[in-house]
Amino acid sequence: MRPPTSRYTLSGDRQVTIGAVEALERLREGNRRFVWGTPSGDGVSSHTRRANLVAGQQPFAIILGCSDSRVPAEIVFDQGLGDLFVIRVAGPVVAPSQIGSVEFAADRFGTRLVMILGHSQCGAVIATLEELRRPTETQSRNLRSIVDRIRPSVEDLLATDLAKDTDALVREAVRANVRAAVTQLRHGSELIERLSEQNGLLIVGAEYSLESGVVQVFGGVQVREANEMQEFSLAVTDRKDRR
Ligand SMILES: [Zn+2]
């Protein structure tokens, strides 16, 4: 059963929260509009929409993305006020405050999709690789706490052939960091595990291309929705096809 295409009813009321698969499709459609330069235009500046959201919010997706100024979730997914619950931190990394933010939105608003959004040429990942190659003493403790969270997922890559090709190394490190973040978040708390196992919460990893504007979701995922398991296959592309 699919809800109507419009996100709002004619009276301007927000629809009930949608499931993870529908939410993912909505993000993909929005990203397609962004890439093609055909935004829906029904979002940010609508006074009606702003007024309707004063009483409460029901974001349909939670995005944990990088702070990079070139990757604002609302813009790359062509969404407006009240649509996305966005947490941004360099990396992105998964620390207790990020887990708490996801818990809050998933529990309070019933949001069923969480996307961890990395991106090509991520400065935090590049800084981590540089630090691994040439450790410095001068890095601030706070910055180090970000690097230290990225480090475990990327340091093994330096021992492979990828180390000889900086572009390929960074590309693979970005994906490795997102995959690690997905795993950390999936097991980040009892609440998240319970919502995943019993309430259809889906956590996926994705990568935004600075070059093309395309967001690619990766990994095959299983979705538990409406009390039944349904296979939801997402294209898993190999490194050559992606860019
Ligand atoms: Zn970044």
Tell me what you see in this structure.
By secondary structure, the protein is α/β, with parallel strands linked by helices. It has a single domain (5-236), classed as 3-Layer(aba) Sandwich (Beta-carbonic Anhydrase, Chain A), CATH 3.40.1050.10. It has helices spanning 20-36, 47-52, 73-76, 96-109, 123-133, 141-154, 166-186, 190-198; strands spanning 61-65, 84-88, 113-119, 202-208, 215-218, 221-225, 228-232. It has a five-stranded mixed beta sheet. It has a two-stranded antiparallel ribbon with strand order 6-7. Helix 5 packs across helix 6 (141-154) and helix 6 (141-154) crosses helix 7. The model is unreliable at 1-15 and 222-243 (pLDDT under 50). Bound molecules: zinc ion (ZN).
